[in-house]
Every structure is written in structure tokens, then in C-alpha cells.
Specification:
- Helices cover about 20% and strands about 35% of the residues.
- It is an alpha+beta fold and about 140 residues long.
- The protein has one domain: Alpha-Beta Barrel (ADP-ribosylation fold).
- Strands 2, 3, 5 and 6 form a four-stranded antiparallel β-sheet that branches. Strands 1-4-7 form a three-stranded antiparallel β-sheet.
- Strand 8 and strand 9 form a beta hairpin.
- The longest helix is centred in the first third of the chain and has 10 residues.
- The N terminus is likely disordered.
- InterPro entries: DUF952.
- It holds the Pfam family DUF952.
Length: about 140
Amino acid sequence: MTHDTEPVRAAEEPPRLVYRLCSLDDWQAAATVGVFLGSDQDRADGFIHLSGADQVPETAGRHYAGVRPLMLLTVDARRVDGEVRWEESRGGALFPHLYGTIPLEAVLAAYRLAEDRAGRLMVPPLMTMPGDLGP
């Protein structure tokens, strides 16, 4: 009888922090009702499009080039209402999709992105895991 001596490795935990780009109007509407329900495109697709930290700049350039002012929401994936699934999308990359809504309690920060003198968005350094936020 042989025994497998290879150590069992835990599956890599997905990033706890995910990001949502949106117009200032969409963010103000969410703040008024207490929940971000997504855009018309999100509702048509059946989920809210999110981005990982490393995906935000490209997403901003591809999908929000003409949207100003543009907001960047930092979202705690453990506090959303629904399920975040990392699914294949652009170029085979995995993107977080939320099948649910984002209550304001899940939004840890909301930044209005500034532009440099050439009109390029200045995205701050982003994290994937927060400090100690509790459950």
C-alpha cells in the first residue's frame, strides 16, 4: 500500500477587496437609496461587473473613457448581498462578478478619480486584502 505524502494545500483565497468604477451620478443614487444596484449594463448581464486591484486601470480605459467625474469604490466582497464569482472574461482573465447588490456597508471607500494634465485618470495604489476588518 502506498501513501500520498504530498502536502495538502488550501485553495488560494480570492481577494477580499474588489473595485467598482461608476459615474458620480450612479454613486449619488446608490448613496440615496443605501445600495448600489448596478448599471443598466449590469442588469442586462445579470450581475454587477467588478474589477480586481490590477484590473482597474484597464477597465477604466476600456469602459469608462468618457465618464467624468468617475468614482472608484473599494468593496469588501464579504459584506455584499449575494455571491462574488471570479469568472472568465476579457482575454481569458478572471473577473469578479457580483450576483447580488452592494449595500453601502460593503463600500469601504469611494474616491473621485483625478486626472493628470494630459487627461489620464490617476488610479491610486490598490490592495487586494484589507487590514483587520473583522467578519
